[in-house]
Amino acid sequence: MTTAYILYVDDYTRNRPITTVVRQAQCSFRIWYDEDWTALTSSVYQAEEPMSDYAHPEVLVETDWVAENLDNPRIRLVECNHDPLLYHTGHLPGVIRLDWMTDLSDPIRRDLLDAPRFAQMLNAWGIDNQTTLIFYGDQYNWWATYAFWVCKLFGHADARIMNGGRAKWLAEGRPLTRAGGAQRDSAAPRYNAPTRDDSAFRATYRQVLARIGQPDSALVDVRTAQEYGGATPPTPELPQTLRGGHIPTAVNIPWARLVNPDSTFKRREEFARIFDERGITPEKEVISYCLMGGLSSHTWFVLTWLLGYPRVRNYDGGWSEWGNLVAVPVAQKY
Questions:
Q1: Which residues have C-beta within 8 Å of that of residue 273, sequence separation ≥ 6?
Q2: Which of 61, 141, 151, 331 is a good FRET partner for 171, with 20 to 30 A between their CA atoms?
Q3: Residue 240 pLDDT level (bands cut at 50, 70, 90)
Q4: Please, which contacts does 259-266 make with residues 24 or more away whose CB atoms are closer than 8 Å?
């Protein structure tokens, strides 16, 4: 059923973004307006809640919800950006700055941090096992989903992503601050971190090697078509590899197909179509990979939490590992 509304733009609403006016009606819309902005005519289609069709809608929060909960003591906002210096140009009030490379990695070997370091980090921010962690960042939330993924390896119960990240928050004209974010807490340790469990959500290169060509498995390369084909090397500031190409039998579904222009996630039916047409179906064991785990964690998040696939792992070694290994198979497609 179509319900039509006339929305009049008075002196109050005309100074607010049109998207804000319509968003409060919680519907999808088509807009026509006259040249002097005295009236706005909108054909409005009643729609279900934006995230209600996802398998686990509780893992996504909208910017409205975050704005209403900035002072909630049981919630901690965590900003994790591709560009770690972006935080200093402005961030949400009271937010924790998380550097995906230094804070989430082992300081010596190439691996994720262990349980004692994870607990130490969260204790320093006054976070306990019941705290709700809201992750967001730049670049379509690449590294925010990576931080979410790491938290799930340690079994943190309530972790969520702010849909749209920094880009959507800024596009809506919401405030940023350059004031110091969350202060470190010197209180006694209170976070109990179990030993990191990689079995459900993380894949090693040996596990990937064993799944090549298996009919009950699927490998998803989320990089660009050029990187997948081997013709375009990674950008100079990222880890270099001796070989270009992709893991044999992997299908190429670039991460960018999963997001809208405003940095939010697409709807569930769009995800289902994208993956179904490439044979990535729920009954299979799925492993996603990119260069070094960030983009593929984004696809892992979509498959696991938004589509509800039961067996999805992120190969965070990625092409930066595979492309430098000796005697592993490599496929190229130009």
A1: none
A2: 151
A3: confident
A4: 259/140, 262/164, 262/167, 262/168, 262/171, 263/140, 263/141, 263/164, 263/165, 263/166, 263/167, 263/168, 264/163, 264/164, 264/168, 265/60, 265/163, 265/302, 265/306
Residue 149: Cβ within 10 Å count = 26
70 and 151 belong to one structural domain: yes
Is 24 in the same domain as 67? no
**Same domain (yes/no): 164, 217:** no
Query: Domain total for the chain?
Result: 3
Cα–Cα dist 128/120, whole Å = 11
Q: Are residues 39 and 73 in the same domain?
A: no
Q: Does 36 reside within a domain?
A: yes
Same domain, 214 and 266: yes
> Which range of residues forms the domain containing residue 74?
57-171
Amino acid at 215: P
Nearest Cα to Cα of residue 289 among 333, 245, 259, 326? 245
Q: C-alpha 109: how far from its chain's center?
A: 25
Based on the domain organization, do 117 and 140 belong to the same domain?
yes
Helix, strand, coil: what percent of the chain each, to 5? Answer: 30, 20, 50
For residue 194, being part of any structural domain is answered with no
Per-residue pLDDT reduced to its tens digit, 99-108: 999 999 999 9
Q: Which two tokens stand for residue 139?
A: 């670049």
pLDDT band at 31 (very low <50, low <70, confident <90, very high): very low
Q: Is 171 helix (H, G, I), strand (E, B) or coil?
A: helix
290 noted as active-site residue: yes
Q: Which of 27, 80, 151, 290 is catalytic?
A: 290
Phi-psi region at 93: left, alpha or beta (left = phi > 0; alpha = psi -120 to 50): beta
